[in-house]
Write a structure and sequence with these properties.
The protein is an all-alpha fold. The chain contains 9 helices and no strands.
Length: 248
């Protein structure tokens, strides 16, 4: 008869592989992955927060331009929203970053683009892009309100500004929360496009780690981070929507 230990070879190999996989999650390499991806996640979070802070008020102003009684204003704002929504965000990032360089080189051939402009360029491009989408959401919400509410506010002595911010806008916010949530979730995922300008956000950090370690683990961890961020955003937006559910 053969050696009985030979029969246990597949089991021993599987056990060794399982032990090595488990030990990896307690190794310094995995701790380094978490540390670097966490710093990338914080940068992605900064891009998300700053884009929301700048794009929402700009989107509201753009929506006013879309509803302006002046045809030239409507035309110009319409061109802006069409370009922002009709071209890739990646292209807009490159134009915002490299555009000033080529313009300044026409004036001063010795001009050199500062690498510190990379992050501001990301924020500018993201803000301009998402403001166009938010503008259309605001416009649809505002135009969905019955004209009778404006007339009732005028009868009660409210000015147009008071009518909008005290009566119309709170109802608009409630109506546009679902599409706003969708845009916020899309924004979380779009932060990975900052890699075009060599901004080391979470996906860029995962790509660099995966190349250095010849492993897909960094991509898996980055995917988990993105999922958690999106879940938190969706949960917060849902809570806000419930708070605004005054019909109940």
């Amino acid at each position: 008869m053969g050696d009985p230990s030979i029969l246990n070879v597949p089991y021993l190999i599987l056990a060794a592989q399982t032990d090595s996989q488990v030990s990896f999650f307690y190794s310094p390499e995995f701790a380094a992955i978490i540390s670097q991806l966490t710093s990338g996640m914080l940068l992605s979070l900064n891009i998300f927060i700053l884009t929301i802070l700048f794009a929402l008020p700009l989107g509201l102003l753009v929506s006013f331009g879309r509803m302006s009684r002046f045809r030239i204003v409507r035309f110009l704002v319409g061109i802006y929203t069409s370009i922002m929504r009709g071209t890739p965000l990646m292209l807009q990032l490159m134009l915002v970053f490299f555009g000033p360089f080529y313009i300044m080189r026409m004036i001063d051939p010795t001009f050199v683009l500062n690498s510190a402009y990379r992050f501001p360029a990301v924020i500018i491009a993201f803000t301009l892009n998402y403001a166009a989408y938010y503008a259309e959401i605001f416009r649809s919400g505002i135009q969905s309100m019955p004209k009778g509410q404006y007339e009732a506010a005028a009868v009660l002595g409210f000015s147009k500004t008071q009518c909008f911010f005290r009566i119309i806008f709170p109802q608009v916010v409630k109506r546009i929360m679902p599409p706003m949530t969708n845009e916020a979730i899309t924004l979380v995922k779009d932060t990975s496009l900052a890699m075009v300008l060599s901004v080391t956000e979470m996906f860029t950090a995962a790509k660099d780690l995966a190349s250095a370690q010849s492993s897909v683990i960094p991509f898996v961890v980055a995917g988990v981070f993105f999922f958690v961020m999106n879940y938190v955003v969706a949960f917060c937006m849902m809570r806000i929507e419930k708070k605004l559910d005054y019909y109940r």
